[in-house]
From TrEMBL:
InterPro entries: MobA_MobL. Keywords: Conjugation. This is Nickase. Residues 18-133 form the MobA/MobL protein domain. It comes from human gut metagenome. Residues 126-146 are annotated as: Disordered. It holds the Pfam family MobA_MobL. The lineage of its organism: unclassified sequences, metagenomes, organismal metagenomes.
């Protein structure tokens, strides 16, 4: 991947009252239901989302291709009050990468650094149309053991 002008990694933590379902709803712009707190997570007013995708390693249950199922399962597995539910990475795609190549670039990045290591990657590309570089938002869960 070419040099990146912005790179930010955050951990979604239960101890900070954060939710992997809410993070996934925000990044994808989808309405998701959290089984943990029995609330809808709704960010579908976000209009800058141009692509979303879930990438599974070969041993992952196929039902995890559904975003709501995936992130509710991650929250159910991680039971401790201080659980790390997911990792959220925000980076900027260099401006010289054409829009039609951006998803392939992020897909290759997620495959190399997450999926090939047994993790599930759920990514979205946000482009606010402001002339700033588009920002992909990979959200991944590291608890997927073979």
């Amino acid at each position: 991947m070419p040099p990146c002008p912005h790179f930010d990694l955050k951990i979604v933590q239960r101890s900070k009252r954060q939710s992997a379902v809410a993070a996934a709803a925000y990044q994808s712009g989808e309405r998701l239901f959290s089984e943990y707190d029995q609330k809808q997570k709704y960010y579908s007013h976000k209009s800058e989302i141009v692509h979303t995708e879930i990438m599974l390693p070969p041993h992952a249950p196929p039902e995890y291709a559904d975003r709501n199922t995936l992130w509710n399962a991650a929250e159910a597995i991680e039971k401790q009050w201080n659980s790390q539910l997911a990792r959220r990475l925000v980076l900027a795609i260099p401006r010289d990468i054409p829009p039609e190549q951006q998803a392939d670039l992020i897909r290759d990045y997620c495959r190399e650094f997450f999926v090939s290591k047994g993790m599930i990657a759920d990514f979205a590309i946000h482009d606010k149309g402001t002339g700033q570089p588009p920002r992909p938002h990979p959200l991944y869960h590291a608890g997927m053991d073979e």
